[in-house]
From TrEMBL, chain A:
Coiled coil: none annotated. Pfam families: ThiS. NCBIfam families: moaD. It comes from Roseovarius pelagicus. SUPFAM superfamilies: MoaD/ThiS (SSF54285). This is Molybdopterin converting factor subunit 1. It comes from the Bacteria.
UniProtKB/TrEMBL annotation, chain B:
It catalyses: 2 [molybdopterin-synthase sulfur-carrier protein]-C-terminal-Gly-aminoethanethioate + cyclic pyranopterin phosphate + H2O = molybdopterin + 2 [molybdopterin-synthase sulfur-carrier protein]-C-terminal Gly-Gly + 2 H(+). SUPFAM superfamilies: Molybdopterin synthase subunit MoaE. Converts molybdopterin precursor Z into molybdopterin. This requires the incorporation of two sulfur atoms into precursor Z to generate a dithiolene group. The sulfur is provided by MoaD. Keywords: Molybdenum cofactor biosynthesis. Heterotetramer of 2 MoaD subunits and 2 MoaE subunits. Also stable as homodimer. The enzyme changes between these two forms during catalysis. Its EC number is 2.8.1.12. This is Molybdopterin synthase catalytic subunit. Residues 139-148 have a biased composition (Acidic residues). Residues 128-148 are annotated as: Disordered. Pathway: Cofactor biosynthesis; molybdopterin biosynthesis. The keyword NADP does not apply.
């Protein structure tokens, strides 16, 4: 079980800010592929992962990173602070 | 080190004075303030600032710690707002205190460069013709490489 969070337009496209996902995906990319197969809204939101960033347990990470031991995954567009 | 992420407005003068008042032996204090500005092509009604509670504070703390390890600093303040802002509202400020002005200026610039692209904030601009998420700028990403 994993908390999956979405922010900004990713949240809007998927239609919810967070959900708990029962998955045995071993990498972020595996999780993305699994979500895309679920429903069209995930497929649209994740259609171009180069336009997305991912954080694992609140640390910026990569799409090929392992999900072993990770409790919280967050997907969002490039950040625009300041 | 003082890191704050808040919805409420802040008083620039009060924050700058409070920051200055708690420094000892610092010859230089630099403050930078970010202001919500109007768009070039359409009047901005509101800006919605979203963030990632938990990660935001961690990311800002890391950025501040990186600055503290690179320059001789007495203190750092980072204050960033989220929620619904209007044109001319103050959105964020950073302050640095150092014995010397160059360290204070450079550290403030470093903090701003990393805040732009490495702190989990996202801005959505609302005009009368609709709303759009602000896209990250390549210039901002490039600015990070200058600090390597």
């Amino acid at each position: 079980m994993m908390d999956v969070l979405y922010f900004a337009w990713v949240r809007e496209r998927i239609g919810l800010p967070r959900e708990v996902i029962d998955t045995d995906a071993s990498t972020v990319q595996d999780l993305v592929d699994e979500l895309r197969r679920r429903e069209g809204r995930y497929d649209v939101a994740f259609s171009d992962t180069s336009a997305l960033r991912v954080a694992l347990d609140q640390e910026l990470s990569d799409f090929d990173a392992s999900l072993k031991g990770v409790r919280e995954v967050a997907f969002f567009p490039p950040m625009t602070g300041g | 080190m003082d890191i704050r992420v808040q919805e409420a407005a802040f008083d620039l003068g009060a924050e700058a004075n409070a920051f200055a008042a708690r420094q000892r032996g610092m010859g230089a204090i630099v403050t930078f303030t970010g202001v919500v500005r109007d768009l070039d092509d359409a009047p901005l009604r509101h800006m919605q600032v979203e963030h990632y509670p938990g990660m935001t504070e961690k990311a800002l703390t890391k950025i501040a710690a990186d600055a503290a390890s690179r320059w001789d600093l007495g203190d750092i303040l980072i204050l960033h707002r989220y929620g619904r802002l209007a044109p001319d509202d103050l959105i964020m400020m950073v302050a640095t205190a150092s014995r010397h002005r160059r360290d204070a200026f450079e550290a403030a610039t470093f903090l701003m460069d990393f805040l732009k692209s490495r702190a989990p904030f996202w801005k959505k601009e609302e005009t009368e013709s609709g709303s759009d998420w602000v896209a990250a700028k390549q210039d901002d990403e490039d600015a990070l490489n200058d600090w390597d």
